[in-house]
Amino acid sequence: MGKAHVLAICVPAQGHVIPLMEFSVSLAKHGIKITFVNSESAHKLVVNASSDTKDDDIALVSIPDGDQPEILKQVIENINATDGDNKITCVLADPGLSWAMEVADEMKIRRAILSPFAATLLVLKSSIPKLIQDGIIGEDGTPTKKKTVLLSPTIPAIETSHFSWICYSNSELLKFWLFEYALRCNKSMKLADKILCNSNYDLEPAAFEMNPKILPIGPLLTSNQQTGNFWAEDSSCLKWLDQQATKSVIYVAFGSATTFDQDQFQEFAMALELCNRPFIWVVRPGFVEKQSEAYPEGFEERVGGRGLVISWAPQQKVLEHSSIACFLTHCGWNSTMESLINGVPLLCWPFISEQVHNHNYICNVWMVGLGFNRDGVGGLNIARQEIQNKLEELLGNEKYRENALDLKEKLRNSIKQGGCSYSNFISFVEWLKEEE
């Protein structure tokens, strides 16, 4: 009998690849063999950005972009034919890849999904049939009227305009894709033997009570091995942080997909200048058009040594650094979890999908951050004075950091031996190693 062998596959987006890769690294450390399948486009980015560190128990494989059930089936059959002692024993997929669950089901292989977003979002998605039945949304997911929905007495009310497949998107194509993704998640949950979530009982207890099949195994921490980054990390910022005062630096990163137009980019740059505090600002390729010309005239000279602009950061290492005062973020779930596990308060600027939901928890439930008042067309333009004022408010009130540090202790205890997330992880490893 060979090792348990997991085929891991996810949506080819940075926020989905990183947690599945990190989870795969953790499984490999417990003697599980991993074949990590990415789309060709994502595979190239990950390989180009990765270090030379190799793991014999993690094989990186690519398949053509798009839904490829027949090709995935062929990959599994080829592995089983050539590595008879280590046949694929489980398919671990992003919940949006219901077709991967269907392939595993057809081939009589164990099935698990790992949600890269909050458990409450899984509960919301599974409520779609009832939301349609109750006339709250149409068959296409569009809200029929403005109202709030209470999934449970202990889950914060969600405005229908803030549903993950609706909020802040003016693109009908994007709304369609996000709603399709939600429906696919529901299919995956029905087919999966195990539903895992990069979350924690202390963050969303009501969601786990509503669906006890969802098992929290987070926060997943980015390791020093393969992390699934699409861009090479600029670690020089860590030396720069070593030279800054404790809790003095504003860390700014808006994830892998957010974009600014030039007016908002310049307005934000001026806000950082007005704050007169040290900052690290991650401006990845494609964040703004004509990037070299986008900064306000003289900006780089005026901020001098107190401002550092880089293309991509080793975010986990940055957030655990003692010099970080706060995190100005788009509220992606990975970024939120990485901030909480390090006790760093957040300033929230959500853009699309589940980010508004995460913002609600950060500001109104966990009380570890603040949001902005929006005053522009489509709710996307935020003035420099508003940014400056909220930064000063966040950094001037110690309660936000105290709350964040309290959550940090709970989250770190949960991933230690004996903690809930640790126990769920070990139970999953033992399940993978069981002989059928």
From TrEMBL:
Gene3D superfamilies: Glycogen Phosphorylase B (3.40.50.2000). It is an enzyme of class 2 (transferase). Its EC number is 2.4.1.-. Pfam families: UDPGT (PF00201). The keyword Glycoprotein does not apply. GO terms for molecular function: quercetin 3-O-glucosyltransferase activity; quercetin 7-O-glucosyltransferase activity. The keyword Acetylation does not apply. Keywords: Glycosyltransferase, Transferase. Belongs to the UDP-glycosyltransferase family. This is Glycosyltransferase. It comes from Acer yangbiense.
